[in-house]
Amino acid sequence: MADVHDSKTRSRNMAAIRGADTKPEMLIRRGLHSRGFRYRLHDRKLPGRPDIVLPWHRAVIFVNGCFWHGHDCPMFRWPATRQEFWHDKITGNMERDARNIAALLSSGWRVALIWECALKGRGKLPPEAVIDSLIDWLCSAEKRLTLEGLTADTGG
């Protein structure tokens, strides 16, 4: 499918995409805060600068965009233009994510990964269910949590 924007407009649109304080991230932050959880944001001392850091629970939360982090879901599609550039960019992001998560786990942190598709799109989960799952995980001893949207394979 051809792009509906010319290259200048597409470049401006892509440059405007936020890296922090995104709508999905804000939804998670508001949900945790309203339930009494306090946290730090984007701690530069930790690998990957996690979006949310809960030192009391020794837990970090990443809220990842499906496009930028190459999530295998209906919200992700490889771009048709500049394919080599985008392949290198997105696979590089995926490799860096894996290294950062491994470093966090090996240093005793617990890691939650919330995908954008859990909060947006056709397969999104109810926001309360996402927050409930996250809080259940925070109060458990589990090292990892991954939340993603429903797909045709998972019943959605």
Automatic annotation (TrEMBL):
GO molecular function: endonuclease activity; hydrolase activity
UniProt xrefs under Gene3D superfamilies: VSR Endonuclease
Protein origin, superkingdom: Bacteria
CDD domains reported in the protein's UniProt record: Vsr
Gene Ontology process terms (BP): mismatch repair
Protein keywords: DNA damage, DNA repair, Endonuclease, Hydrolase, Nuclease
InterPro entries the record matches: DNA_mismatch_endonuc_vsr (IPR004603), Restrct_endonuc-II-like (IPR011335)
NCBIfam families named in the record: vsr
Entry similarity comment: Belongs to the Vsr family.
Entry protein name: DNA mismatch endonuclease Vsr
Organism: Paracoccus amoyensis
